[in-house]
Amino acid sequence: MSPGFQGRPRTAEPALPPGQYLTEDFPVLSAGPTPKVPLDTWEFVITTETGAEFRWSWTELMGLPQETATVDIHCVTRWSKLATNWQGVSLDTLLEGIDTDAHYALAHSYGGYTTNLPLDDLRGGRAWVAHTYDGSPLPAEHGGPARLLVPHLYFWKSAKWVRGVRLKTVDEPGFWETAGYHDYGDPWREQRYQGD
């Protein structure tokens, strides 16, 4: 090296999971029609492995402690969006006091969509039932009135139009997982498809 040679200036490119590209917009991807769920009939239900049910109406959900999360999201179709702003209720709040021996969860959505997750991935401040995006009510095309938000996994695990979670002692693949997508979906390990 010549004295004083500094090399090329480095850019402050964000760290993205392998194979991802940065987007500023918010692409809309859905497997079927967008459900229209009236708030007066919306509910969220946690069902334990014994069949016990814990229910919240929209009004009850709004009465629970609300959290704001600024998180990066990563879609399996290779886009990433950084520093997205959400508001919702932590799954820690919803699971508090529920007695379970389950290690897995199967999220259910209005419209029939399902996705499986380890129960530990819904705890510890890692998951929310999100109803607000960027300061406004979550639009239906992005999963409103409420979606699951599990930002440390590929975004298909953040089930749109979420209506409940069934706690399970045995892992059960959901919609995309039965079609060949990875059971876990860690974007940093590129777990896009079974076998990745």
UniProtKB/TrEMBL annotation:
<feature type="domain" description="Oxidoreductase molybdopterin-binding">
    <location>
        <begin position="32"/>
        <end position="176"/>
    </location>
</feature>
<dbReference type="InterPro" id="IPR036374">
    <property type="entry name" value="OxRdtase_Mopterin-bd_sf"/>
</dbReference>
<protein>
    <submittedName>
        <fullName>Sulfoxide reductase catalytic subunit YedY</fullName>
    </submittedName>
</protein>
<dbReference type="Pfam" id="PF00174">
    <property type="entry name" value="Oxidored_molyb"/>
</dbReference>
<dbReference type="InterPro" id="IPR000572">
    <property type="entry name" value="OxRdtase_Mopterin-bd_dom"/>
</dbReference>
